Amino acid sequence: MTELTLPPSPNWYCPKVIDMDSTGKLAFGARQDVHIFNTADFPPIYLGVFGLHRDRISAVALCPPHYSSPSCCSASEDGKVKVWNTETKALQHEHNTHNGKVTGLSWSSVQEDLIVSGDDKGELVVWQLNDARIQTYCPEKGGIFCLAFSPFSAACVAVGYRTGVIVLVDVKKEGTILQRLRGHDEDIQSLVWCPVTGEDFTMKDTPNFGVEGHLLASGSRDRTIRIWSTSKGRQLSLFRVPKPGGYFQRGDQDAGRGKIK
């Protein structure tokens, strides 16, 4: 007899409520619980649930591949952030430093004991697990909606705000703002760093990104996707999300005018 698992629906309107690592392990928040699957097998295998949160899960991040134990960090709208073992489901670390609802979460792949989280009051909390050290910053006014550690530096975090502003913050230097990227008009809903170095962005089939700088992609509620030069602090290209029934049309990427109609 074939077993069939019908998982609960992930929580809505949370940009970081699902995460998957390179081994195929998938974690997502549903109501106040975090469910884990192994998607490397088919059909996916249900690995269990972590249920020590008391409020709605708002963000989830799996640990880097070489972290000391298989772990997951989860945050909820009550302001609590927890790190737990994905095999035993045992709680390992937690803090309740946030004064608002946690909306974003990122685990550094460069410094593997470093986690950053943000809330709807604009507070950024940097948590170093090994030393149990916590620092808080408020680099920009407005609520934080999503954030992402740079894959090249443990110091640089991209922070997206409900105002449409993206701020690059150095969390090793008292939350110093490195760049402020303006262009979006509404909530920043997604931030993704390019996995390779270079900012020579083109639309060619075999791109050559060069060796200087790092690209960042952002998606917003304003229905645009933008590619940014983080070293120069400027937009390189723009794409508009199509309406139902629309089609993609390449534009002049050098002028940042790639359009979707």
TrEMBL record:
Signal peptide: none
Annotated source species: Tegillarca granosa
SUPFAM superfamilies: WD40 repeat-like (SSF50978)
InterPro entries, per the entry: Beta-prop_GEMI5_1st, Gemin-5, WD40/YVTN_repeat-like_dom_sf, WD40_repeat_CS, WD40_repeat_dom_sf, WD40_rpt
Protein name per its UniProtKB record: Gem-associated protein 5 first beta-propeller domain-containing protein
Keyword Repeat annotated: yes
Domain Gem-associated protein 5 first beta-propeller residue range list: 144-200
PROSITE patterns registered for this protein in UniProt: WD_REPEATS_1, WD_REPEATS_2
Keywords for this protein: Repeat, WD repeat
Superkingdom of the organism of origin: Eukaryota
UniProt WD repeat ranges: 95-137, 212-238
Stored Pfam families: Beta-prop_RIG_1st, WD40
